[in-house]
């Protein structure tokens, strides 16, 4: 079977990780990536051997900087089966129309609204909904994090109501324009978008979310309270999460008490860019009291959506019918395991 030809539009925080993940898959070929400016990320892409494409208006700037390009964005679109759009949020309509005109499939990220594509994607919750689709959208890092844990818990015990507070990192580690920050900033527009975003995939789930921006760049932390319909014990919930796809349980008594120590674990695991693709749940922070479940989880905002993008490519291109098989292939290529 011919490899799926993939282009990545936008070689930034998410785009560079998607590109590396695509290049690691045996059934995919990375055709190229795009940049709008000849900066260090463009040079990094070339060092990795990726073909670099640019918008028409950027050709002159790359020429003046002496940065070699393989062509324009339109040239890249003529060579791919599917493009993963990792451009900044709120420009989706412009690129959606461009992709449609070029006759290529496209995946957008969580910075765009669900209405842009009409389909939102999660690998284990609704893999089949993107099967053969022209357009789809991988939900945001926080929404992905909530789906990874709430979906298996809902399947096992049925969630009556979920209440989530998200402590958000203020900026990605490489982003200096939002810091330094010495303060906590609550999101006063309530409920936040995360609940409706989860419902774009689990429409039956009653979920309310709040968020606070914190002065950290490492990870997000969620506090989750869920009212369960079925009886459950703490031990039973732990067993469900141990088996859940792309969820990693850690224990504070083993020395992993903070997000800083989680990221150190990712480094020790030898991950590409020290990424933690899994949603990390503190096992000794899981507690069931009556029919109420409490737990904490951490989300590495730079990387948890990366494996979802890879699985979405397979679903849209009809390359793997079974979601579990696609997840297994992606995880093996990215070094994701329970150990």
Along the chain, the helix and strand elements come as EHEHEHEHEHEEEHEEHEEHEHEEEHH
Helicity range: 25-40%
Tally of individual domains = 2
Specify the CATH homologous superfamily of the largest domain: NAD(P)-binding Rossmann-like Domain
| Contiguous helical run count | 11
User: How far apart lie the N and C ends?
Assistant: 32 Å
CATH-assigned fold name of the largest domain: Rossmann fold
CATH class placement of the largest domain: Alpha Beta
Radius of gyration: 20 Å
- Poorly predicted runs are none
- Placed side by side, the strands forming the largest sheet appear as 4-3-2-1-5-6-8-7
Which architecture name of the largest domain does CATH use? Answer: 3-Layer(aba) Sandwich
Beta percentage is 15-25%
Q: Give the beta-strand count.
A: 16
Overall pLDDT level? 96
- From the spread of the alpha carbons, the general shape counts as globular
What does the main sheet amount to? 8 strands, parallel
The assigned structural class equals alpha/beta
Characterization of the model:
It is a single chain. This protein has 2 domains: 4-139 and 305-334, 3-Layer(aba) Sandwich (Rossmann fold), CATH 3.40.50; 141-299, Dihydrodipicolinate Reductase, domain 2. The two termini are 32 Å apart. The longest helix has 17 residues, at 141-157. The mean pLDDT is 96. Strand 1 (4-9), helix 1 and strand 2 form a beta-alpha-beta unit. The strands form 2 sheets. It has an 8-stranded parallel sheet with strand order 4-3-2-1-5-6-8-7, sandwiched between helices. Strands 9, 10, 11, 12, 13, 14, 15 and 16 form an 8-stranded mixed sheet that branches. Helices cover 32% and strands 24% of the residues. The protein is built from 11 helices and 16 strands.
